Amino acid sequence: MEEQIREILFNPVVGKLVTIFIGIAVIWILVKALQKNLFSKIKDTDNRYRSKKLSSYIGYVFTIILITVVYSDKLGGFTVALGVAGAGIAFALQEVITSFAGWLAIMFGGFYKTGDRVQLGGIKGDVMDIGVLRTTVMETGQWVDGDLYNGRIVLVANSFVFKEPVFNYSGDFPFLWDEIKLPIQYGSNYEKAKEIILAVGKDVAGDLTEQSRLKWIALQRKFRLEDAQTEPMVSIIANDNWVEFTLRYVVSYKKRRATKTELFTRLLTKIEATNGEIKFASATFHLVEAPEFKVKMSS
């Protein structure tokens, strides 16, 4: 019985398994200790998330290295076979490999981060999680109007960053330019209409003017960009049916619909309070009579 126990204890296979088990335990104890005692104290949410995610991946890498080192003496005879098999696997899993490369580009290339509002492969929403192969997005839009969540969680392959444009609504410049159009009847007081629209625009969206201005200046220092007007502005064009006033303003990427609702509410109230001095226009149709036809019948 003792001899059998000795054989088991001193068996090379058992020794390697024990070594792997102890090594893996040590690796993950260290990883968890770093995450709990060091990374959890990072104040910035994005940096804390990235640090914990990266430490987990490092743990996986060290686990693979440990297993490879322990069994390195058994791998020599399979080098050629592994090379051929690796080429076949790489071809079969090219989408997976591309997604992994996409993850590296996302993490270190600044494409987007968790919490950003993006559009990936036709899917628009907020980034919930960035995995090794897929990005998890809480979708907005589709059957829901505006920029509101529709409740659908979408997994998008990271390989999309190499195949299609990546739209980031909240990157270095977390603002959007938006517009509303108002049809005003011909004969209205155009100057007063312009004053009212501009005043309402500044009152509702003017608080973002300075914030967006500072962000735009910082963006100009980083990239080659022209100067841009971040203050609300009004432009006017005349068409066949009415005079069209367009209010252009800067808005937070998450408050576009709420801001537009507030603007329309105030503008409707202000314009209706002018007692007909300014009137909204609607489409008009001019019906033309059909021409008379004289037909002569010959017998």
What would you say this structure looks like, in words?
The chain is of the alpha+beta class and 299 residues long. The protein has 3 domains: 2-74; 109-168, SH3 type barrels; 175-272, Alpha-Beta Plaits. The protein contains 9 helices and 8 strands. The chain has a 5-stranded antiparallel β-sheet, covered by helices on one side. A 3-stranded antiparallel β-sheet has the order 6-8-7. Helix 2 packs antiparallel against helix 3 and helix 7 packs antiparallel against helix 9. It is elongated, with a radius of gyration of 32 Å. The N and C termini lie far apart (131 Å). The model has no long low-confidence stretch (mean pLDDT 77).
Features:
SH3 type barrels, 5-stranded antiparallel beta sheet, 3 domains, Alpha-Beta Plaits, alpha+beta, 299 residues
Major β-sheet annotation: 5 strands, antiparallel
Strand order of the largest sheet: 4-3-2-1-5
Number of separate helices: 9
CATH class placement of the largest domain:
Alpha Beta
What ranges have pLDDT less than 50 throughout 5 or more consecutive residues? none
Structural class: alpha+beta
Report how far apart the termini are: 131 Å
- Mean residue pLDDT: 77
Q: Any idea what the radius of gyration is?
A: 32 Å
Second CATH tier, the architecture of the largest domain: 2-Layer Sandwich
**What percentage of amino acids are in beta strands?**
15-25%
Shape designation: elongated
Number of strands: 8
Please write the string of helix (H) and strand (E) elements: HHHHHEEEEHEEHHEEH
Count of distinct structural domains? 3
Quote the CATH topology of the largest domain.
Answer: Alpha-Beta Plaits
Relative helix content: 40-55%
